[in-house]
Amino acid sequence: MHSTTHTTSTSATPHDAVIHITALTKSFVNGPSTLRVLRGLDLTVRRGEWVAIIGASGSGKSTLLNILGLLNPPDSGRYVLDGVDTAGLDDDQLTALRNASLGFIFQRFNLLGRTSAADNVATPLLYSRISAREREQRSLAALASVGLADRTDHDPSMLSGGQMQRVAIARALVTEPAVLLADEPTGNLDEASGAEIMSLFHDLHERGRTIVMITHDLEVARAADRQLRLRDGVLYDAGPELAAAASALARS
Ligand SMILES: Nc1ncnc2c1ncn2[C@@H]1O[C@H](COP(=O)(O)OP(=O)(O)OP(=O)(O)O)[C@@H](O)[C@H]1O
Ligand SMILES: [Mg+2]
Predict the structure, then answer these.
(1) Pocket test for ligand 1, best of 24, 26, 28 (most atoms within 8 A of CB)
(2) 37 alpha carbon to ligand 1 midpoint, in Å?
(3) 82 in a domain, yes or no?
(4) Rounded to the nearest whole angstrom, what is the distance from the C-alpha of residue 60 to the centroid of ligand 1?
(5) How far is the CA of 230 from the centre of ligand 1 (A)?
(6) The CATH number of the domain where 133 resides is what?
(7) Is residue 105 one of the residues assigned to a domain?
(8) Per-residue model confidence as pLDDT tens for the chain (252 residues)
């Protein structure tokens, strides 16, 4: 029924892979019990691809995204990001790779309060050696690219949920990262704002962005090029399952 995406752990990184993960494991120890969340997971994401990851609550989606985002190390396995093998990098190197290669979008937006949209978007640039003037120019350009050119001075309390998420997306884009990582980006939005954010993701995808998106919304997942289900600590191709669900819906 389910075809696994397993490859052998000795496989070379495909030349167009921006994420290449093999045999990844991650467990959490709680007193006497060990929770094996990721159990030898493989994942290859090609440059420009949009991948959606679905899975039950507690299946390990955020755990996987934190590893993809270099926020948490795996217990074992290989993770090559944008051509760099992440094993053996020290904290400074991990931070540098994270800032250069990754943009994050969260369910709760995670914007700084009492801080203008423009300054929120510019924060990831504080780690790079660019002038305040260029930071501002890039921030305004990123806000314009998400349709918020007229909201640059607004702080989060003056923005709608959909607008806050667009600010967060601009912030994720401002460093021109190789990969956008999104954890339930429409999870806190009403239907209309969610649709707005999805159409923005469509635009980003068309402009060639690589996107890895976690969602529990099957409609949202369907918009991606490829759908994977995290279950029992590994990823399965969820395309057939989603197609079957869609045709069952069409018949009802
Ligand atoms: N730091 C931690 N210490 C101990 N257990 C953890 C830790 N982080 C996550 N877990 C456990 O690992 C499992 C996977 O958690 P994770 O947050 O990755 O799930 P998820 O798929 O993102 O769920 P949801 O859809 O509810 O967000 C859960 O059972 C969780 O309780
Ligand atoms: Mg989660």
Answers:
(1) 28
(2) 8
(3) no
(4) 5
(5) 12
(6) 3.40.50.300
(7) yes
(8) 444 444 444 457 788 999 999 999 999 999 999 999 999 999 999 999 999 999 999 999 999 999 999 999 999 999 999 999 999 899 999 999 999 999 999 989 999 999 999 999 999 999 888 999 999 999 999 999 999 999 999 999 999 999 999 999 999 999 999 999 999 999 999 999 999 999 999 999 999 999 999 998 899 999 999 999 999 999 999 999 998 888 888 888
Q: What is the dihedral of CA 65, 70, 74, 80, to 10 degrees?
A: 100
**Residue 150 forms part of a structural domain:** yes
Going by C-alpha positions, the residue among 60, 56, 57, 53 that lies closest to residue 28 is 60
Number of domains in the chain: 1
* Ligand 1 neighbour 157 (Cβ under 6 A): no
Length of the chain equals 252
Q: Is residue 81 part of a domain?
A: no
Nearest-10 crossing angle of helices 132-145, 161-173: 130
Domain holding 93, by residue range, is 48-68+88-251
pTM: 0.91
d(CA 188, CA 203): 21
* Atom of ligand 1 minimally distant from the CA of 64: 18
